[in-house]
């Protein structure tokens, strides 16, 4: 069932109802007390000042002191509970978005950049969570208005009715005024998230951009994206300014009417001097709840826009559906592709026998990517099938597939931590370190495998990073391991050592090497040639080396 932005907001509030309720109670007590301050001052004037009683004056001063102490305590506690509700709600939403993005079925059909998803999971989640923190203040503003109305009713029926009957239209007008801000805020968040996504992609591919001399094109692209984001932000800022100004003017008119009616009543002798002071004080106090309403309404408008964006992510269909079939345990690792069609792949059919080290040479990078997606069930074929031990992978839950088939992509990232922590993912860590020649990397690092690496392993060279990523994949000891160009940044001597180590470590386990590396292909049991998305040849590396199309892909 799809989730709307309204439901995201409702669930966020419902999840923190206790903290929100406590915050609302305490802040309402604070605003009610604030409204009572001018009333108490009016009583002091009528009973103590006008009567000239020092004792009565002292008593009422003590009452004021107690009132202000209560105001301070209730505000601090209310703000604390409200902030707690906001942060916990934002945290829960971040987890929801994270779970959806990391779901084994993937996120299909959205075309959302990674940076956009980060923005939705951070800034949008924070904006929705903030609604939990501001709602209690909205209730507090209402409480302040009610106390003011009751106090004015006890002084004068016209004044009380004016506040009671005038407040609902004011709130409705505030809601209408907030609509343009909501629309502009949604556009601002979309442009900002897209700019973040472009920036993330550019930073991730910085070395490639420099290698092909595309820095200027990349800068121009980001400049255009950033300018679009800036224009959307300025439009949202103008909407915010218009929203705040309109509400301030509306509030000022309402307060002026209240003060005018109170002044006429005092001039006619219908209320006392103390009541007049209290009425004027309450009229001035009314600025506070209406300012609160302005602030709350603006936050709600932005929260609704962000909630809609979060709902879009939560509603995104999975790239692949679940399944009820199971793979055998332990898996023999017999991989078979039958008449496979997807993207650049055309009627692809081959098999990797249990324990075989199979090489796949793809002349088209898009075909290699589509093949990897189908083998790891990141995507299902348009037609045909991929099976492991005679079980069609499209009938198996993606999380179960990945317990048997591990696909190590060419651009695999490392995590912040030590070299060892990036590799310790399975039972064969020590053997994997040796097979991937990470022991040579360790000798060049200040603390060996205990050396800390930065996010994505950027503190390592390209070759070092590839070897650590390969060791991590080998250490998992998966029944079926699919490797994509794992040594493109490694020198030929090291590559030959890795080829031998990989073949030795994976003996008895099915391994598919999608690569054009002669050193790795020479270590395979068999190679299939995937040219223009079709299987055009099969045999050993030495046998295929005599074909012009194979030589062009591998030996050029």
From TrEMBL:
Q: Which UniProt keywords apply?
A: ATP-binding, Membrane, Nucleotide-binding, Transmembrane, Transmembrane helix
Q: What is the top-level taxon of the source organism? A: Bacteria
- GO terms under cellular component: plasma membrane
In this chain the ABC transporter domain maps to 308-556
Keyword Membrane appears in the UniProt entry? yes
Q: Does the UniProt entry include the keyword Transmembrane?
A: yes
Domain ABC transmembrane type-1: from-to ranges: 21-302
Q: Where is it localised? A: Cell membrane
Ranges annotated as spanning the membrane: 20-45, 57-78, 134-153, 159-177, 245-267, 273-296
MF-aspect GO terms: ABC-type oligopeptide transporter activity; ATP binding; ATP hydrolysis activity
The record, for PANTHER family, names: ATP-BINDING CASSETTE SUB-FAMILY B MEMBER 10, MITOCHONDRIAL (PTHR43394:SF1), ATP-DEPENDENT PERMEASE MDL1, MITOCHONDRIAL (PTHR43394)
Q: What is this protein called?
A: Putative ABC transport system ATP-binding protein
Gene source species: Amycolatopsis tolypomycina
Q: What is the lineage of its organism?
A: Bacteria, Bacillati, Actinomycetota, Actinomycetes, Pseudonocardiales
């Amino acid at each position: 069932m799809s989730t709307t932005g309204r439901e995201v907001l409702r669930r966020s509030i419902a999840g923190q109802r206790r903290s929100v309720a406590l915050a609302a109670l305490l802040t309402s007590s604070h605003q009610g007390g604030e409204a009572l301050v001018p009333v108490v001052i009016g009583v002091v004037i009528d009973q103590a000042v006008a009567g000239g009683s020092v004792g009565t004056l002292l008593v009422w001063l003590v009452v004021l002191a107690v009132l202000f102490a209560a105001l301070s305590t209730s505000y601090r506690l209310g703000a604390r509970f409200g902030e707690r509700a906001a942060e916990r709600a934002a945290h829960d939403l971040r987890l929801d978005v994270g779970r959806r993005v990391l779901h084994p079925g993937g996120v299909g059909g959205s075309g959302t950049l990674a940076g956009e998803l980060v923005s939705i999971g951070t800034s949008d989640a924070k904006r929705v969570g903030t609604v939990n923190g501001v709602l209690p203040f909205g209730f507090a503003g209402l409480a302040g208005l009610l106390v003011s109305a009751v106090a004015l009713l006890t002084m004068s029926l016209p004044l009380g009715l004016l506040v009671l009957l005038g407040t609902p239209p004011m709130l409705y007008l505030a809601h209408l005024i907030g609509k343009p801000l909501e629309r502009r805020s949604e556009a601002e968040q979309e442009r900002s998230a897209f700019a973040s996504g472009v920036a993330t992609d550019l930073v991730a591919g910085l070395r490639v951009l420099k290698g092909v001399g595309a820095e200027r094109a990349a800068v121009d692209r980001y400049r255009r994206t950033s300018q679009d984001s800036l224009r959307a932000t300025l439009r949202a800022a103008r909407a915010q300014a218009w929203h705040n100004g309109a509400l301030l003017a509306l509030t000022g008119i309402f307060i002026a009417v209240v003060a005018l009616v109170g002044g006429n009543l005092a001039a006619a002798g219908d209320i006392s001097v103390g009541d007049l002071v209290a009425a004027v004080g309450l009229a001035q106090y009314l600025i506070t709840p209406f300012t609160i309403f302005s602030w709350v309404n603006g936050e709600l408008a932005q929260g609704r826009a962000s909630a809609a964006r979060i709902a879009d992510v939560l509603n995104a269909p999975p790239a692949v559906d679940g399944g009820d079939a199971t793979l055998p345990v332990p898996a023999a690792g017999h991989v078979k592709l039958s008449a496979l069609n997807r993207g650049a792949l055309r009627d692809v059919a081959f098999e990797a026998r249990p324990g075989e080290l199979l090489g796949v040479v793809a002349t088209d990078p898009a075909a290699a990517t589509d093949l990897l997606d189908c083998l790891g069930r990141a995507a299902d074929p348009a037609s045909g099938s991929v099976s492991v031990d005679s079980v069609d992978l499209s009938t198996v839950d993606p999380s179960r597939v990945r317990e048997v088939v591990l696909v190590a992509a060419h651009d695999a990232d490392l995590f912040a931590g030590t070299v060892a922590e990036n590799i310790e993912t399975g039972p064969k860590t020590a053997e994997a370190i040796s097979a991937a020649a990470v022991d040579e990397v360790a000798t060049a690092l200040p603390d060996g495998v205990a050396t800390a690496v930065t996010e994505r392993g950027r503190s390592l060279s390209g070759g070092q990073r590839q070897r650590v990523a390969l060791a991590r994949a080998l250490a998992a000891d998966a029944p079926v391991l699919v490797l994509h160009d794992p040594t493109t940044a490694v020198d030929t001597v090291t590559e030959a050592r890795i080829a031998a180590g990989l073949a030795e470590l994976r003996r008895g386990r099915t391994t598919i090497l999608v690569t054009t590396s002669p050193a790795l292909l020479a270590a395979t049991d068999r190679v299939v040639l995937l040219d223009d998305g079709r299987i055009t040849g099969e045999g050993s590396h030495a046998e295929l080396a005599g074909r012009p199309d194979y030589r062009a892909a591998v030996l050029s």
